[in-house]
């Protein structure tokens, strides 16, 4: 997979992809993330990427020309399955969306800034608009990093233990059960006996029940219409 992220603040994206699991994905050649500075596609000495909103009002709007140049340059090199715009009015990001996107080959993610992008960018180029929640960030970079992380960790070979992504919260519509590691007892707090029993069927059963209990308590909405 290849993810191209377009931004006016590339430095915001330097951290997330150069460490840990996402770095390993890049090192193994499983997922490549390339960050593009929109200013490189801007005209004039000023390298202008934004301008006043027609009709007035506070806040600058990102112009269509630099964005169009950048997207067209990328598209001339390869085919893209999706051109995503991060936006608070997009569809709320979810595990099922991450699952779907993890099957794609090439994705562009456009990060907005200021008041967002000229509406015509959305009409002309964008195939999908994603919000990471009902709050407003100052730019799309952190949101793009969230989406890219959630997608990349699902690609086979990225996580060490292949089954580990499948047992995370939301994958089966349930929250994950509690987890424990050594020591078996800490200041009188004991790990549930069954987890030390070595009896795999009983352990699985305990985990399933703990998942259901936790989901009932914290996210009953996930259980509605579900048969357990
Ligand atoms: N004026 C816009 C908000 C602009 S915020 C509005 O009211 O809808 C600037 C940029 O940050 C947006 O263009 C978008 O790319 C990004 N952004 C802000 N909040 C976001 C969210 N919840 N999810 C995804 N991207 C977001």
TrEMBL record:
GO terms for biological process: tRNA N1-guanine methylation. It holds the Pfam family tRNA_m1G_MT. Residues 1-223 form the tRNA methyltransferase TRMD/TRM10-type domain. It catalyses: guanosine(37) in tRNA + S-adenosyl-L-methionine = N(1)-methylguanosine(37) in tRNA + S-adenosyl-L-homocysteine + H(+). It is found in: Cytoplasm. InterPro entries: tRNA_m1G_MeTrfase_TrmD, tRNA_MeTrfase_TRMD/TRM10. GO terms for cellular component: cytosol. It is an enzyme of class 2 (transferase). Its main location: cytoplasm. GO terms for molecular function: tRNA (guanine(37)-N1)-methyltransferase activity. The keyword Cell inner membrane does not apply. S-adenosyl-L-methionine binds at residues 112, 132-137. Keywords: Cytoplasm, Methyltransferase, S-adenosyl-L-methionine, Transferase, tRNA processing. Its EC number is 2.1.1.228. Belongs to the RNA methyltransferase TrmD family. Specifically methylates guanosine-37 in various tRNAs. NCBIfam families: PRK00026.1, trmD. Homodimer. This is tRNA (guanine-N(1)-)-methyltransferase. The gene is trmD.
